[in-house]
């Protein structure tokens, strides 16, 4: 598994089923929500907001299902 510090992720987005993190050089990491408890989802959201350019979103259409 590839290790990347939080600073390596510049943008993120949350969909109904997944979290998507954008890394360098057009790489993306997808984290499925089905494997997370509600508490883990809330903690991940908090970490993403704090450490990945708070509030930044990927340049995807809001209509794009995730």
Task: Describe the 3D structure.
21% of the residues lie in helices and 21% in strands. It has 66 residues and is of the alpha+beta class. It has a domain at 6-51. InterPro entries: YcxB-like_C. Residues 5-48 form the YcxB-like C-terminal domain. This is YcxB-like protein. Pfam families: YcxB (PF14317).
Quaternary organization: single chain
List segments where confidence is low: pLDDT < 50 over at least 5 consecutive residues: 54-63
Q: Looking across the biggest beta sheet, what order are the strands in? A: 1-2-3
- How many strands, which pairing sense, and closed or not: the largest β-sheet? 3 strands, antiparallel
Order of helices and strands: EEEH
**What structural category characterises the helix and strand content?**
alpha+beta
Brief account:
This protein has 66 residues and is an alpha+beta fold. The protein has one helix at 38-51, and strands spanning 11-14, 18-22, 28-32. It has a domain at 6-51.
SSE layout:
Elements: E1 11-14, E2 18-22, E3 28-32, H1 38-51
Antiparallel strand pairs: 1-2, 2-3
Domain YcxB-like C-terminal: 5-48
InterPro entries: YcxB-like_C
Protein name: YcxB-like protein
């Amino acid at each position: 598994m590839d290790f990347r510090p939080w600073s390596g992720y510049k943008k993120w987005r949350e969909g109904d089923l997944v979290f998507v993190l954008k890394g360098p050089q057009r790489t993306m990491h997808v984290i499925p929500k089905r494997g997370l408890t509600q508490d883990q989802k809330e903690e991940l959201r908090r970490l993403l907001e704090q450490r990945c350019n708070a509030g930044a979103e990927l340049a995807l259409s809001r209509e794009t299902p995730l």
